[in-house]
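Bumping my old thread because nobody answered last time. Still need a sequence for this structure:
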């Protein structure tokens, strides 16, 4: 964290710092923050986008750069199982994430297989882009070797890796990546749904975040998820998502039909166990 951010954190004990990926799932939070001008429940609220995904947010939580983050279920499980001092608080999006499997538009491959001949771009180790590639390989009865990974940091890095041929495949949320397909930069060769809920709200295992602020974050969370439920059914929402996230309106409508936000604070243990069952199976 830079010195300015440290100063803000020290001088603002009522500051709550949120983080998430810059994707449409979090539009309700952006809308709520705009409507409240970042002040609600006696607290000041900020939001930071993390294009690098869950791995980047886990690092930010551990470095005390943010207080709460919306992480992929699989990344939350892997971090906690590896000893990270994180607390999983609630499911946020209960529908599975639809992971598009993408390659460069000029790449001649049309299928994922044979897996042992593919190079996989990933944002970082422990990210959904790595973990879902492992899930997909296991579904196909194959494994991915360490030499097959290409670190790309984020979607922009993956675009470079796939376009140059440095990597063959990249797993990223289907609709977020669709504009690159529409532009003729990527092509989608398959889709891999996650076997669990998409996103979980998590924080450092810190009494201040878990206990002292517990009711505040829960109240805000339930306000926003109620807004999300209303937003899902509004006839104006596809146009809003299309404009804000540069999607075709038909794609935005398709995503809204698929996505299901929780309507209340929801224990994430069942979803984390689903991930555990996948990654600990022999």
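Sorry it took so long. Here it is:
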């Amino acid at each position: 964290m830079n010195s300015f951010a440290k100063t803000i954190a020290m001088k603002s004990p009522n500051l709550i710092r949120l983080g998430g990926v810059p994707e449409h799932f979090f539009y309700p939070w952006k809308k709520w923050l705009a409507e409240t001008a970042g002040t609600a429940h006696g607290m000041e609220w900020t939001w930071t986008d993390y294009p690098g995904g869950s791995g980047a947010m886990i690092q930010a939580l551990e470095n005390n750069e943010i207080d709460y983050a919306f992480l992929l279920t699989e990344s939350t499980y892997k971090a906690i199982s590896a000893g990270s001092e994180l607390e999983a608080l609630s499911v946020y999006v209960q529908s599975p994430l639809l992971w598009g499997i993408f390659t460069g538009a000029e790449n001649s491959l049309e299928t994922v297989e044979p897996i042992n001949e593919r190079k996989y771009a990933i944002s970082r180790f422990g990210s959904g882009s790595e973990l879902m590639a492992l899930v997909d390989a296991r579904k196909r009865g194959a494994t991915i070797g360490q030499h097959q990974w290409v670190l790309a940091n984020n979607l922009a890095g993956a675009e470079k890796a796939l376009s140059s041929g440095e990597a063959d495949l990249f797993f990223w949320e289907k609709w977020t990546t669709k504009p690159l397909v529409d532009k003729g930069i990527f092509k989608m060769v398959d889709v891999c749904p996650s076997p669990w809920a998409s996103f979980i709200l998590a924080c450092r295992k810190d009494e201040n975040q878990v206990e002292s602020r517990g009711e505040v974050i829960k109240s805000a969370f339930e306000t926003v998820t109620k807004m999300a439920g209303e937003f899902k059914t509004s006839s104006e929402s596809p146009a809003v998502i299309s404009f804000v996230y540069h999607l075709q309106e038909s794609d935005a409508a398709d995503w809204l039909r698929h996505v299901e936000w929780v309507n209340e604070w929801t224990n994430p243990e069942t979803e984390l166990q689903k991930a555990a069952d996948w990654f600990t199976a022999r």
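The first helix runs from residue 3 to 11. Let me know if any region looks off to you.
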